[in-house]
Amino acid sequence: MVKLTNKTKKLVARDRKFLLSQPRMPYTFAADRGDGDYAYDIEGNRFIDFSSFIGVYNMGVNSDKKVREAIKKQLDKLMHPALLEFYAELPVDFAELLSGMMPRAGWKFFFSNSGAEANEAAIKFANLFTGRQYTMAFYNSFHGRTSGTLSLTSSKIVHREHFGPFTNTIHVPFPYCYRCPFGQEYPGCGLACIDYIRKQPLSKEVGPNEVAAFFAEPVQGEGGYIVPPMDYYRELKRLLEEHGILLVSDEVQAGYMRTGKFLAMDNFGVVADIYTMAKAIGAGLPLGATITRASLGDIPPGAHANTYGGNLAVIAGAFEQLKGVRANRAKLESEIKSKGAFALKRLAEMREKYQIVGDARGIGLMLAIELVKDKKGKEPAVHERELILKDAFDNGLILLGAGQSAIRLVPPVTISHENLAKGLDILEQSVKRANAETLKGRSR
Ligand SMILES: Cc1ncc(COP(=O)(O)O)c(C=O)c1O
Description:
By secondary structure, the protein is α/β, with parallel strands linked by helices. Helix content is 38%, strand content 16%.
């Protein structure tokens, strides 16, 4: 059982005094160090990590020793190359290696410092390439919290309230089949949600020739780890191509091997026009990438740029990490597939056994359970989720929430089979206890 002392309590008090508020988990994890499958708090407690520190440490907590060595070496040489005005070798080497991971040939790269920044750039590039002003995005999506990306993001009111008005994005329902916005069932629905886009917003709200790009998380992340039907993006791409609308695949959370493919969109057999990446691509340091189909053209110099993009210390780590991923791609893909299948089976068993587990879903090691008060009514079990997150933490497992009442499982994709199984055991025990408590509460 994890014990927290005054050391953690004092840190929390000082944090509240000096830092503006953050959302934070219902448990108190004060990060100290990490190593592979494990994270350690400042008290020395060890946890199995099912968070990858919000999808960043896909290749193990605190990244590989080789990656850290590459960063250290570059620190003593030159950190900041001012790529905006000067040239440097590493960012070009990295872009060349990254282009080898992309579907098809012919991509151009723009580096920045975060997911939001990568998406900001994608909005501007799409506007420039098409000469159009509007964007489209899904309800329940998350693309960042900057003013520009907030026009796309629509997973929670708290992200947007007080910051509008946002005028240039049209939102449409995501194919969230567990809670179908049209009350239908797949595949009988015939993807009514695509038909809706054609017949409603693109017929009544904005002319399709005014829309520059459609932003999509291939698997919705912050909105609840929601996987669309496998033919969804093929149909969506067909519709967008009819009207010259670019598809932007936001791979910030779902990309970089998370789903067992380098790009999550690869699972759906679709090639997007623009990809955005961040989180795991930086191996623990801040890196964003906006990747555009080269045939879309170039941007006028100065139309978009930043000071820090292409920072050499950051790219040194990212380059070293990507070399490893490239060399082991096939092995990683098959291991993630088999670990993911094992974990999803365990989650599906929990759904069968426990009333409060309404749904179990995911691809690769991007997995979730959605908690409900009862399976029929599907009322989100928000309190029960808190109980589970906290109980699992007390038993040595770090988990994150997603959406209104889902728990996401996002361990390093390199996690050992043994630790994956141990983590799932801890999760199941916590679900079992919360389930029993809920049933007890109801019989009172
Ligand atoms: C899909 C997606 N896009 C964009 C972002 C924003 O990234 P950042 O927090 O690095 O700005 C996130 C962050 O969680 C994300 O999950």
